[in-house]
Amino acid sequence: MSMTPENRECGVRHRFTVRHRDTTPNPWPAAMQQLAHWCAVFDSEGLAPVEGGASAGNLSFRTPAGFVITPTRSRLKTGIDWTSFVEVVRADAQAFELHVLGSGTPSSDAFLHERIYAARTDVNAVLHGHDELVLEYAHALAREFPIALTTGTRDFGTLIDSQETASELGAMPYIIRLGHGFVSVGRTMDIAGDLAVAVHRRAVHMKAGG
Ligand SMILES: [Zn+2]
User: Rounded CA gap, 114 and 98, in Å?
Assistant: First the structure.
């Protein structure tokens, strides 16, 4: 199943309330440099295609207070400025509210990242991208890689989507969000990123008949 229209992120605004506690995120120079690196890789590999002027995808790493994530409606390209990243330091599911450091608005999928970090103490990086080939070959890829599949398609960015996707990920390092995209997680950004690229390249190979 390919991408469903409601999951195209262009034009969709975040659904939660944002409380800005500060206008700049804490500096985590090495990790932020790595996050910027993976933004550039996702862009160049076609894992965060530009939809409606912004990249479809969101990447984060864990911090002691929460996590640093790419802002909503941004371009994940080479040279992304770290000051545009946002650190989420508190999530209130009941109020559907995020407290952040930074001037931007965290990705509309920020609650999904939050739910995964809460459930998976082994995970320090969460990378989400869009990949039509991965959707096309979802079941074949799941036979070759440690991949979970969502049980259905859901509108992204809702609390229910974040809770159910995190739950369906289970102990796996990768989940395909049917009709939407994928999430790759790992102990480090490199582990999660390398897996995302490996699955994508395998899908490219499958498309070519291999
Ligand atoms: Zn998405």
Answer: 10
Dist. CA 206 → ligand 1 center (Å): 23
**CA pair distance 210, 193, nearest whole angstrom:** 23
What ranges do the domains of the chain cover? 5-207
The architecture in CATH of the region 5-207 reads: 3-Layer(aba) Sandwich (3.40)
Instruction: Give the helix/strand (H/E) hosting 36.
Output: helix 29-45
Quote the ligand 1 centre to 125 CA distance (angstroms): 16
Q: Ligand 1 mean position to 147 CA, how many Å?
A: 17
Give the pLDDT confidence of 123-135 residue by residue, as tens digits.
999 999 999 999 9
The CB density around residue 9, as the number of other CB atoms within 10 Å, is 24
Q: Is 22 helix (H, G, I), strand (E, B) or coil?
A: strand
- The rounded Å distance from CA 136 to ligand 1 centre is 16
**What residues have a C-beta under 5 A from ligand 1, the ion?**
181
Higher pLDDT, residue 124 or 7:
124
What confidence tens digit (pLDDT) does each residue in 129-181 have? 999 999 999 999 999 999 999 987 788 788 899 999 999 999 999 999 999 99
